[in-house]
Amino acid sequence: MSPATTALSAGDLAARLTDPLRLARADATETEGWDSGGPLRDAAVLVPLVLHPEPTVLLTLRTTKLSSHAGQVAFPGGRIESGESPEQAALRESWEEVGLGPALPQVLGRLPDHLTGTGFRITPVLALLRPPLQLIPEPGEVELIFEYPLSRLLDPALPQQQKARFRGAERAFWVWPHERHYVWGATAAILRNLALVLR
Known about the structure:
three-stranded antiparallel sheet, Nucleoside Triphosphate Pyrophosphohydrolase, 6 helices, alpha+beta
């Protein structure tokens, strides 16, 4: 076991994720090429840390049938409906997408909003989850539920920054290594902020 992760108990994680000085380490993200001038659409995702002896972060793989972000790695989440707080939206969407009961996550706070090139303002909602969990992917939205080792977030050599052309301009973005899935974009940027807070 990695000393970096075995030292982080549920209490340690909760303390770090609610510490204002640590939260100030997170980057206020910029738009990834959002230049239409139109209004941003508000969304929220749940960023759940699963309290195994070696903690993990819960992620999903979106189905290839979706009209946007098909086949991408994501946190459970979606649009904020009228009258909802980001926390309410993240919990509702997590229930709809992976069957996570709204009473199960211990909500701790938020990371800075992330603005995407597709016109969303995403609020990441931090939470702790205690196993065992019985999760069921909603087949119209989620192909797979999987967990990413927290030890990788604590590795100072990660994530990797890559570049690609997007809408006629070269953009830099973060990528976290995984054996099967390409973890990039908004999900990778939010994971990087989580890492900056926890390290």
